[in-house]
Amino acid sequence: MSRAATSARLDRDLPDLPAGMRWREWMMRAEAAIFASPKPVPRETLAGIVGDACRLDALIADINDELKARPYEIVFVAGGFQFRTRPRCAETLRALAGARDAGPPAFTKLEMLALSAIAYQQPITRAGLSRLVGHDISRDILGRLKNTGVIAAGPRAPQPGAPIAWVTTPRFLEVFALGSLRDLPDLDAMAADDASSGEVEDSVEAALDDALGLIEEGADDAQDDASL
């Protein structure tokens, strides 16, 4: 039986159940669908397994309310809902033997600067990035960002040599817990009218740092300093 046929047979509205039991059933369906999916589940997909009268945002809020004591929650990222471990658990997950890649990736200061510039100026070439941030953005830095899945090669720039222009990926939205690129911190609100470009870049980096807490101090700063 096809998935469409199975979906068509699902009783979404559950009219025979009392309101409280109906809501609990919808909560269980939504939680199961999100738990079983390796990717964020779009709102439209969840709407296909609950009744028309279901308010999805309220439903997800009720599920999260029951997860308050757990180390994970449901968040809206990359255009859908996904289970995520809470940010405060990242250091613990990284410390697990054999689980080096668990939790969100850690970025050095220079990697974060490059990633911030790509997020706001994409598509942008490596040369353009270097000019924008005032440091040489090496191929190694872009390679490490690419390996974490947060950037990818975009269209080639209409310039001599047709260099690759870099763009962010859906994984970027997942890592930074953003629903879309429209959720990036507002540069206009951060930058003073007469701020220099360097100050604006610092604001971008600081905003993402504050929002995400992914920059590791100490050793990573030393690594960046050594690479400059």
Report on the architecture of this protein.
With 228 residues, the protein is mainly alpha-helical. The chain is 49% helix and 11% strand. The protein is built from twelve helices and five strands. It has helices spanning 3-9, 19-36, 43-47, 56-66, 90-95, 109-121, 126-133, 139-147, 170-175, 187-190, 197-212, 219-227, and strands at 72-77, 80-85, 124-125, 151-156, 164-168. The strands form two sheets. The protein has a three-stranded antiparallel sheet with strand order 3-5-4. A two-stranded antiparallel sheet has the order 1-2. The protein is elongated. Residues 211-228 have low confidence and may be disordered.
Radius of gyration: 21 Å
Sketch the topology as an H/E string, one letter per element: HHHHEEHHEHHEEHHHH
How is the biggest beta sheet arranged?
A: 3 strands, antiparallel
Average the pLDDT over all residues and give the rounded result.
82
Structural class, by secondary structure, is: mainly alpha
Shape: elongated
The number of helical runs is 12
Q: Enumerate the strands of the largest sheet in spatial order, edge to edge or round the barrel.
A: 3-5-4
